[in-house]
C-alpha cells in the first residue's frame, strides 16, 4: 500500500491524500457494504473519501485528512493479518487516531503491547482491544497493579475490560480462579421478595457479570467452571470472613457498597491475587444518609502508590452514541445546580 499526498498547487498547500491498496478484495472489506465504513469515517472526521479502482482519495482539512489516512491504513493492515473488521474496530481507530497492528498478534495468552502502544487481551472467544486512551491506560493498570480502581459513567467498559483481563490471566494460569461480586442493591425500585433458592434470588443482580463472562468463554465452559468453583459469582455480603488467594477478584457497582463493606472487601485480598473495584459515583442507590464506600476508598487510598485509580468520562462511552450525550446532559445539569 502506498500513501501519496498530492503536490502543492500554485493556489496553496495540497488538499488531497491518495491511498493505493494492492489487494482489491481486502479493499472491499475495508470500505464495507455499500461503503458504510467510509461513510462512518467521513461523518466522524468531516472529510470526503472518493473511491476509484484500488485508490481512495481523501479531501478535507489537513489534520482530518491525515487522521483519516492513518485510520484507513490501520484498518487495512488489520485485514492483511487476517483480522475481520467489526464496527468496534472502526470506532476504536477513530478515537485513537489510527494505530497499526503487528502481524502475528499476541505472544501467548498475555497482554501484548504492540507498536504504537496497541493493547490487546486474548480470551477464548475473542480478542478484546481498548477503544479509548483511558481504556488503554486502565487495561495496562490491571496487569501492572494488584489493586486497581476503575471509576466513571455507565458504558465506559470498566467491568467488561476487568472481566476480560481476569479471563486472560485465568487461561494463562496466573490465577487459579475468578471471583466476581457486586452489592445486591436495588436500583431505586422495591422488587419485593424474589422466588427460588439463594442462587435464584441473587442471579438477577449478577446478570451483567454472567453476560461479560459469556462474551469471552463458551457458555458450556462457563457453566463447568462455575460448577467446579473456578468461577464464583456472588453478592458482596458473601465475601465476609474469606481470604481470596490466587484469584482475580472484581467488585462491580462499588458505589453501592457501604464504607464497612468496602473495608471488608479490600481486606480479603490474599497472596497471588489481583483485585479490581469498579463504580459510577453518579449511580449511588444506597439509602439516604448512607455514605458510599467507593468515595471513602478514593479519599483514603488515593495516596498509596501501589494502588491504581483510573477515571473515565462521557468521552469514553462505547455503547450507543446517545448514551454519551445523555451522560453529558445530566453532568451539565448537575454542574449548573
Topology:
Elements lengths: L1 E4 L10 E5 L3 H8 L4 H10 L2 E5 L2 E5 L2 H19 L6 H10 L15 E3 L3 E5 L4 E2 L4 H12 L2 E5 L6 H14 L5 E6 L15 H19 L2 H9 L3 E5 L11 E5 L7 H8 L7 E6 L13 H9 L5 E5 L9 H16 L1
Parallel strand pairs: 8-12, 8-13, 9-10, 9-11, 11-12
Antiparallel strand pairs: 1-2, 2-4, 3-4, 5-6, 6-7
Helix pairs in contact: 1-3, 3-4, 5-6, 6-7, 9-10
> What gap, in angstroms, lies between the N and C termini?
54 Å
Oligomeric organization of the protein chains: single chain
> Could you give the order of strands across the largest sheet?
10-9-11-12-8-13
Report Rg.
23 Å
Category by helix and strand content:
alpha/beta
Number of helices: 11
Largest sheet: 6 strands, parallel
Helix-strand string: EEHHEEHHEEEHEHEHHEEHEHEH
Uncertain parts? 5-11, 99-116, 187-191
Helix content: 25-40%
How many strands? 13
The global form is: globular
Mean pLDDT: 82
What fraction of residues sit in β-strands?
15-25%
Question: How would you describe this structure to a colleague?
Answer:
The protein has 337 residues and is of the alpha/beta class. Helices cover 40% and strands 18% of the residues. The chain contains eleven helices and 13 strands. It has helices at residues 24-31, 36-45, 62-80, 87-96, 133-144, 158-171, 198-216, 219-227, 259-266, 293-301, 321-336, and strands at 2-5, 16-20, 48-52, 55-59, 112-114, 118-122, 127-128, 147-151, 177-182, 231-235, 247-251, 274-279, 307-311. Helix 5 packs parallel to helix 6, helix 6 packs across helix 7 and helix 9 crosses helix 10 (293-301). The chain is globular.
Amino acid at each position: 500500500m502506498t500513501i501519496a499526498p498530492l503536490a502543492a498547487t500554485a493556489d496553496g498547500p495540497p488538499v488531497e491524500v491518495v491511498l493505493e491498496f494492492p489487494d482489491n478484495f481486502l479493499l472491499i472489506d475495508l470500505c464495507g457494504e455499500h461503503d458504510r465504513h467510509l461513510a462512518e469515517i467521513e461523518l466522524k472526521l468531516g472529510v470526503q473519501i472518493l473511491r476509484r479502482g484500488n485508490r481512495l482519495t481523501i479531501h478535507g482539512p489537513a489534520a482530518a485528512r491525515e487522521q483519516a489516512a492513518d485510520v484507513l491504513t490501520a484498518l487495512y493492515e488489520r485485514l492483511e493479518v487476517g483480522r475481520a473488521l467489526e464496527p468496534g474496530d472502526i470506532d476504536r481507530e477513530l478515537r485513537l487516531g489510527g494505530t497499526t497492528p503487528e502481524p502475528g498478534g499476541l505472544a501467548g495468552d498475555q497482554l501484548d503491547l504492540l507498536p504504537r502502544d496497541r493493547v490487546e487481551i486474548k480470551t477464548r472467544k475473542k480478542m478484546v482491544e481498548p477503544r479509548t486512551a483511558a481504556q488503554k491506560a486502565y487495561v495496562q493498570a490491571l496487569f501492572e497493579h494488584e489493586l486497581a480502581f476503575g471509576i466513571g459513567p455507565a458504558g465506559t467498559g470498566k467491568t467488561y475490560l476487568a472481566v476480560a483481563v481476569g479471563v486472560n490471566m485465568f487461561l494463562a494460569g496466573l490465577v487459579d480462579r475468578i471471583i466476581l461480586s457486586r452489592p445486591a442493591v436495588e436500583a431505586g425500585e422495591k422488587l419485593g421478595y424474589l422466588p427460588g433458592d439463594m442462587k435464584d434470588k441473587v442471579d438477577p443482580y449478577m446478570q451483567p457479570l454472567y453476560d461479560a463472562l459469556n462474551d469471552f468463554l463458551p457458555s458450556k465452559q462457563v457453566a463447568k467452571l462455575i460448577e467446579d468453583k473456578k468461577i464464583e459469582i456472588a453478592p458482596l455480603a458473601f465475601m465476609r470472613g474469606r481470604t481470596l488467594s490466587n484469584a482475580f477478584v472484581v467488585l462491580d457497582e462499588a458505589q453501592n457498597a457501604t464504607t464497612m463493606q468496602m473495608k471488608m472487601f479490600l481486606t480479603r485480598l490474599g497472596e497471588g491475587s489481583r483485585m479490581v473495584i469498579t463504580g459510577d459515583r453518579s449511580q449511588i442507590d444506597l439509602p439516604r444518609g448512607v455514605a458510599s464506600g467507593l468515595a471513602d476508598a478514593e479519599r483514603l487510598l488515593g495516596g498509596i502508590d501501589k494502588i491504581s485509580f483510573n477515571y473515565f468520562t462521557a468521552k469514553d462511552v462505547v455503547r450507543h452514541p446517545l448514551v454519551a450525550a445523555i451522560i453529558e446532559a445530566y453532568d451539565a445539569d448537575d454542574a449548573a445546580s
